[in-house]
Design goal:
Elements (H helix, E strand, L loop, with lengths): L9 E3 L7 H16 L7 E4 L1 H10 L3 H9 L6 H17 L4 H12 L8 E7 L15 E5 L2 H13 L4 H10 L8 E7 L5 E6 L10 E8 L3 H4 L6 E6 L5 E5 L5 E6 L2 E6 L12 H18 L3 E8 L2 E9 L21 E2 L13 H21 L11 E4 L2 E5 L5 H7 L3 H13 L1 H18 L11 H23 L2 H20 L17 H17 L2 H9 L2 H7 L13 H15 L18 H11 L6 H22 L2 H26 L5 H17 L14 H13 L7 H15 L6 E2 L5 E2 L2 E2 H4 L11 E3 L1 E4 L2 E8 L14 E4 L7 H4 L4 E4 L7 H9 L3 E3 L4 H4 L5 E5 L4 E4 L2
Parallel strand pairs: 22-23, 23-24, 24-25
Antiparallel strand pairs: 1-2, 2-5, 3-4, 3-5, 6-7, 6-12, 7-8, 8-9, 10-11, 12-13, 14-16, 14-17, 15-16, 18-19, 20-27, 21-25, 22-26, 26-27
């Protein structure tokens, strides 16, 4: 860049004279960054003296203050009126000729021809540590030629007096006569990707991680709230991406003939990650340097062009949450003890508002019906399922204290009813609950959702959730306890009566059977093996990321030229999703499934394609062969009643173990269609201005959705929930960082007089140290690198040989077991899904630690002792 003339009106971008008083908050910050050698686009600064010169030459000072004095912060009409008067004054003003010449010269010095520039306002009351004042003045992008630059500068000056800016300053107590405006002019970065970097987590206050928002095109789409960006959490020390949420980015801001405009993001890129992990690490390094320069956490706007990062702005983060903030886990009134047990083990995170207010009450009603059948309705006088800090809990107050004494006499009557319930356990699921669930889904499958009223959509959604609750209660009161009892009974009897020293453990006889999760894994493996026979397709699947393939999958046009077999791949993959895509990662229906976001499955498919995971057909066949040999060996030495007892117990255990996995895999059978119904409601609420994006419907409460639906169908205006949704999402993010106690109160909670902490497979009340205790559920010992996976968006971080660390694992997590050398979870026990699959894969597992995801970090060396139920933490 050439040297701008030495004068009080125009300064070089990195001039030491570029102080807050001279160039405003944004300009002073950019000057500091440029002087420190940060990659800031070249440019120049038009000082506050130039603004003052324009105001003085056109005699605007008194008319501006007179108009501003009429405005009241709490009266929008007065703000608009004052702003309109002041805008007219600026529009009618004339730029002094000498000032115009200086600006033209500085612009000409930026480059040959008419370079595209960004013209940004920079107020003296802006980008301060205490208050950011962000977004109160205007920015003009893709401005070309001197005349347009001058016009943009004049419009920036006028933007100091928009209604929004006048009101904001009035509410913050800034006198109208004390603010002035500078203007920053910089070469425009024609960004392929842009976004915001926070050098501390703005939701939790954690200083050891950075948050990155990223989207396609110029950053105005994010700043203006036009698009939901990707969100990445990056470890500040290592640069490793620890969490990644890929949004559906529908629009992007791009340069146009008259400035900028919005255009649709190409279909293939909407669900594709805008920023790769290595790029996020590079950006984090820049962020750390900027944070060190300022000595405090920073909010940084950045752009990426041709592989190079540019820093567009940096300001201190305001209102960063205090470190060490804790949540209050006080019991609700009337609740004496509760626990995160039963179905709640499928809800590891805080619940979305819609799930909490729609699904929990329906689950509660189905539980109440079961207790009525058992004659035990009095033990649940209030809702059994409720939330604390949005985490679900089960109320055990009914079987504690004096109420327990009322229940005891009924236990004699309870026994025959339980026996009847268990005898029909399989039939109640196979012949009643599952068909009822399927029928509730079938009623809406294939229907044109756009033709239904909003009230009808909600009625359909409620019916599906009720059927899902009935389905789960049926398996919870039949298939699941039968599987637990029969497996436990067989393994204990075998190990005590029939097993010889050095002989196979009881679990050997229960492995190698088919179940829905195993069939799903084999289906994915078969698809990978078929793709391997298609050279062009295999090459593409190997090179592309899971997110890129998932984004291209809906299109019948090949993702790149020369990829033969693409449509056949799509057909086969669609068939796989039809059969298995409803498996849940989390019971909360606000969370995505493979059916609507197949990227996590594609990550597993890529592992099979690369030969990084074992052939599941072969693994299953080997387990079955070992099982048969062990059975034949016992058949040869057991006679009479001993053989009859062994065989009877074995057959019962073998019958129910696969059924348990099948039943759990179908818990989300209706969730893909349910999410379509609710998203259609969300789409309508966006069109009505109630929400900003369709998936925000999950952040409304059920009564709010019903009210909004009634307004939609009546054609009347509804409430605007966008601010409430933003606040709820921020609260949810803070709550998600907590580790909820498994039992409350932490000490003294009792179930039928027994300490609940001893009954439940999780140990949140653990002392800090080099070991974590849990329940050893799959034998063996392994040392390796931990990989903490919080959800399906992070499945692609798993590498062969990593030790999987998660809150829970459901059947949908099975593909990761093919890569894992061990498993550690917060929640789970010997008969949970994670235990079953770990034993199928012959990898050590320690479950029910309660604190693993909180205490273990990705990349940390840990040792998993599946025999002793202990995890040793390395450095």
């Amino acid at each position: 860049m050439g040297t701008a003339p030495a004068n009080p009106f125009v300064l070089q971008l990195d001039s030491p004279e570029a102080t807050l008083a001279q160039v405003g908050g944004k300009g002073a910050s950019l000057a500091r960054l440029a002087a420190a050698g940060m990659p800031v686009p070249p440019g120049f600064q038009i000082t506050t003296h130039a603004y003052g010169r324009f105001v003085d030459e056109n005699q605007l000072a008194n008319p501006i203050l007179a108009a501003a004095a009429q405005a009241r912060a709490d009266d929008p009409a007065t703000l608009d009126r004052a702003s309109a008067q002041i805008q007219t004054l600026f529009a009618q003003g004339t730029m002094p000729s000498d000032l115009a010449a200086l600006i033209r010269q500085a612009y000409s010095d930026l480059g040959n021809g008419d370079p595209a520039v960004a013209v940004r306002s920079s107020a003296t009351a802006e980008d301060l540590p205490e208050l950011s004042f962000a977004g109160q003045q205007e920015t003009y992008l893709n401005v070309r030629d001197g005349d347009r630059v001058l016009a943009a500068v004049q419009r920036c000056w006028a933007s100091l007096w928009t209604a929004r800016a006048i009101g904001y300053r009035a509410r913050q107590g800034f006198p109208a006569d004390e603010v002035r405006l500078a203007v920053v002019v910089q070469q425009l970065v024609p960004a392929e990707v842009a976004g915001i970097l926070f050098t501390a987590n703005p939701l939790t206050g954690a200083r050891d991680e950075m948050m990155v928002n990223a989207s396609w095109g110029l950053g105005e789409a994010i700043v203006g709230g036009l698009v939901t960006p990707d969100t990445l959490l990056v470890n500040k020390t290592t640069g490793i991406v620890t969490s990644q949420e890929i949004a559906e980015k529908e629009v992007m801001t791009v340069p146009s003939l008259d400035g900028t405009g919005e255009e649709p993001v190409p279909t293939g890129k909407r669900r594709q990650a805008a920023l790769q992990p290595q790029q996020a690490a590079e950006l984090a390094r820049l962020g750390a340097q900027i944070e060190q320069l300022y000595g405090r956490p920073m909010d940084i706007e950045w752009a990426l062009h041709r592989g190079r990062f540019f820093i567009l702005q940096a300001r201190p983060i305001t209102a960063l949450p205090e470190l060490g903030a804790t949540l209050n886990w006080e019991l609700p009134r009337g609740v004496r003890c509760c626990a995160r047990a039963n179905v709640i083990e499928l809800m590891p995170d805080p619940l979305s508002p819609l799930f909490a207010t729609l699904a929990l009450p329906l689950w509660d009603e189905e539980l109440r019906e079961l207790l009525r059948f058992l004659g035990m309705a009095s033990v649940m006088p209030r809702p059994a399922l409720f939330t604390i800090n949005d985490y679900a809990y089960f109320d055990y107050s009914g079987v504690t204290g004096t109420r327990m004494l009322l229940v005891l006499p009924r236990l004699i009557l309870l026994v025959p009813r339980l026996i009847a319930l268990y005898i029909r356990g399989r039939a109640r699921w196979v012949d009643e609950a599952r068909p009822r669930y399927i029928n509730a889904v079938a009623e809406w499958a294939g229907r044109d959702l756009s033709a239904a009223s909003t009230a009808q959509l909600l009625a359909g959604a409620r019916a599906i959730v009720r059927a899902a609750a009935s389905h789960y209660v049926a398996i919870e009161s039949g298939i699941l306890p039968l599987a637990r009892m029969n497996e436990s009974l067989f393994t204990n009897v075998h190990n005590r009566l029939f097993r010889r020293k050095g002989g196979p453990a009881g679990l050997t006889f229960l492995l190698g059977f088919d179940s829905t999760p195993i069939r799903a894994e084999k289906s994915l493996y078969d698809l990978a093996m078929w793709a391997h026979t298609q050279p062009g397709l295999a090459d593409y699947l190997t090179r592309a990321t899971g997110a890129e393939i998932a984004a291209a999958y809906p299109s019948d046009a090949g993702p790149v030229d020369g990829v033969e077999g693409w449509n056949e791949f799509r057909r086969r993959f669609a068939d796989h999703l039809d059969r298995f895509g409803h498996a849940i990662y989390d019971l909360d229906f606000a969370k995505s499934l493979a059916a609507d976001d197949p990227a996590p499955l594609i990550a597993a498919l890529k592992c099979f394609l690369a030969g990084q995971a074992r052939n599941p057909h072969q693994r299953q066949a080997e387990a079955a062969a070992v099982r048969e040999r062990a059975t034949q060996a016992l058949r040869a030495r057991l006679k009479g009643m001993r053989w009859w007892l062994f065989r009877s117990l074995l057959q019962a255990a073998q019958r129910y173990a696969p059924l348990r996995e099948d039943a759990l895999a179908d818990v989300g059978l209706g969730w893909p269609l349910l999410r379509r119904l609710l998203r259609e409601v969300g789409r309508r609420l966006v069109a009505a201005g109630t929400l900003a994006e369709r998936d925000e419907v999950f952040w409304l409460k059920w009564d709010e959705v019903e009210t909004a639906a009634a307004a939609l169908d009546a054609g009347t205006p509804g409430l605007d929930y966008r601010r409430a949704v933003a606040e709820r999402r921020a609260l949810w993010e803070r709550e998600r960082m907590a580790t909820p106690p498994v039992v409350l109160p932490i000490r003294g909670a009792r179930f039928f007089g027994i300490d609940l902490n001893r009954l439940l497979p999780a140990l949140t009340d653990q002392a800090a140290g080099a070991t974590i205790k849990g329940i050893g559920t799959s034998p063996g010992r392994v040392t390796g690198a931990a990989r903490v996976i919080h959800g399906p968006a992070e499945f692609n971080q798993m590498r062969q040989g990593d030790i999987l660390v998660a809150k829970i694992t459901t059947p949908a997590w099975t593909p990761l077991f093919a890569l894992a050398s061990g498993v550690v979870t917060d929640v789970g026990g010997p008969l949970s899904h994670g235990s079953i699959v770990a034993r199928e894969y012959h990898i050590p597992a320690v479950l029910g630690t309660g604190v693993a995801t909180e205490r273990i970090r990705s990349g940390q060396q840990i040792t998993v002792d599946g025999d002793g139920g202990v995890v040793a933490l390395g450095r």
